[in-house]
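Hi! If you just cloned this repository, the fastest way to understand the data is to look at a raw example. We've pasted two of them here, unedited. The first protein comes first, obviously.
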Amino acid sequence: MNWTQLRRNIALGWGQGHFDEYWPWLQIRRRNPSKRGNQVSGDLPGYRRLSSFMGRVEWHFALLCLWLGAVDVREQFPIWPMPHRHPLATFPRRPRPGKLPDHRGLLEVARDAGIDHGWEVGHPDVPYVATVDIAVTRVVDGRLALGMIAGKPRESVDESSPDSRIIERLELQLRYSAEVSATFSIVDAAVIGEHFGANLEGFACAAFPKGRLSDKSLIADFAANISSVGARESINDAIREAATRFSLSDQDACILFRTGVWRRLIDLDMSQYIVMSYPLVSGAELVAQMEKELFKEIPL
């Protein structure tokens, strides 16, 4: 990438905005397929824009953040080398972020850390635009909070020497996060486990049902009924009973069951294989556990 391309992409809005206005800095295209073939342009519930995840596990982390209640998820988020506005400065909804300080840019952060920032191949005068896998916007105690998540196999971090490029990149992400008052965590597929990702995919598709099924009172009452009956009877029996009680088709009842689980109105352990012929299995401690994994700083 040369200066002309860099300026053009910034002018087009790459790496900027929030919600459906956001464009990932790195985007999946025909000419840049992954050698491992696990890139995902999967949907995120509540979004109309296409997403660009360089690995399926990154998509699962994004879904996990939304299931935990994040208000916005931005993948392939750029850490600009030049001075720039705070990542939450243009947040368009309430709560408003208030006045946030500008950031000095990663070039200066790297210089202070004694780490080579990196330059575009073939263009030693053009700084490389580093990215963090996921930038998460949350509301904590009524105020906006920012989290940065780096998806990285833990063994690749543990086995790297302190001066390896992997460690240097993570160190810069950590320092940048500290300067913008964001949490920073390094997570790998072990956090998701064997079944969590597939469950998140399956339940996310019912996050926003349409028509009559979108009625908030119906969703709440349906979920309460499932929770009560499903504590002593099988999930399938609870869904059938709720379908009769609320005059729903079997298909619509299954959709609302998924909606209730996604919105955490129905307590179900999403990290385990779900057996519909068994009663509900509580995942009461799962939310706190996942929030600790994703939004607490993990030192290198």
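Ok, and the second one:
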Amino acid sequence: MLEHILVIARKEVLDSTRDVRSLLSSLLYCLMGPGIVFMISLTMNAKPAGRSVLIGMMSIFTLVSAFTGGMNVSMDVVAGERERRSLLPLLMNAVARRDVLLGKWLAISFFSMAGLIVTLAGFSFVLAEGTHFPLMLASGLIPLALLAAALELGISTACRTVKEAHTYLSMLTFVPMMVGMFLVFHPKAAAGWAHFLPIAGQQWQLERWANGGGMPLGIPLVQALVLAVLTAAAAACAVLAAANVMERDDVVYGNG
């Protein structure tokens, strides 16, 4: 089973890397945040209030990059194959539908994590605060990339065409953006139990680490681990939901 999953994931990754236009589009999306923050930082005189604004923007763009990194890939892995009528021949192989979806999810997760890494690397240069970014990636952001990939896979599975998938996936990227902007303007809303919620918890960690509050002084290790586990559990539930959708005959045999 694991061998089939890895083979499918490898095939999807290789196929996606051949689409240069899609890769450039994802790269521009991921570098847009650091570019905007850099231009805004040039207009500020390193004031504490100004840095707070830059960190707030950094957290929002980083959250969004987890979704934009794999968006172009996700719209093609299921919805695109349905539209090209290549999904049914794929499922006729001696591979469980669940394994097919898991392989595609791993491929989307690869690009989601790559988007996060590119964005964090850009911010480490712009904000000159790269010390805590590996900690951010290791605790809450990798599970967030897995969750973003799972949600995008579910949308692609439910959609019949690439155009339809593109519409809904573009709307999905507004979720971390709206949550992030709300928490920037209303930081007290993220207090207490909200620190354990996906997206809200990751933004809180991003801002604490960017302000120099790395472990163990800034964020308790247990709290970071709980957030990572809860986010990974949400990702698993989203993948399971996508697998249940794939079991429906109208999804597999329906017209594209």
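That's it. A detail worth noticing about the second one: Residues 2-253 form one domain.
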